[in-house]
Structure prediction request, 155 residues.
Amino acid sequence: MNAGRRVVVLGVGNVLLGDEGVGVHVVRELEKRDLPEGVRPIDGGTGGFNLIGIIAEADTLIVVDTLSSDAEPGSIFRFTPDEVRQPGGSRHTSVHDIGLLDALELAAMSGYEPDTVIFGVVPERIDWGMELSAPVKEALPRVLAAVIQEIDGLC
Prediction:
């Protein structure tokens, strides 16, 4: 990895709402690992405007979140903000009221534009409870591997 490069892995979600917390579960798993210098996993909670400060800390931002999609629960998608913004772009969106893209755009207006990639996981169930559904729990190691591969690609 480039010396001094700051990589933030941002897990977004609410662990009290089942699958909605998958991003936080990924961050918690990353915290148990020996990551390269400059890589920082952060629990971003339910997102919103408080993410702008976190975005400002990153040269590269890797986000893990749940997303709304007609795909099978546990499906994983990798995309960039630009792919979503394009006309006819991705139909996948965050399940949060104030979306990640809103926070990224506000951060960009303040001069913070990290290279960003988003891993979205399709939930089966967003309801009270701290357990992930079976399809999302089974997807967790694949999401983790994809994030680690992304980090390794920066080295």
About this structure: The chain has one domain: 7-153. Residues 23 and 65 are 5 Å apart (CA to CA). The chain is about 35% helix and 20% strand.
